[in-house]
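Sequence dictates fold. Below is an illustrative record:

_____
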Amino acid sequence: MSFEKDDQVVLNDEHSEFDGETGTVTQTMESMFGDVTYTVSFEDGQETGVPEDDLEAADADADEDDG
């Protein structure tokens, strides 16, 4: 599954301080080998060069407020 700018995603990378957190795709980049990597912004920072395999679509209800 590919992602586009402004998509909500969950990062699955045990080596990242943002592992398990939901963030927003802010940029997509394609390498010269055709691989796509992403920049994902989180509340406390951002992660760059994230491969598609480390991302999953966030639950649509995750960002809705209860109020």
In short: The mean pLDDT is 90. The radius of gyration is 12 Å. The CA atoms of residues 40 and 63 lie 16 Å apart. The chain has one domain: 8-57.
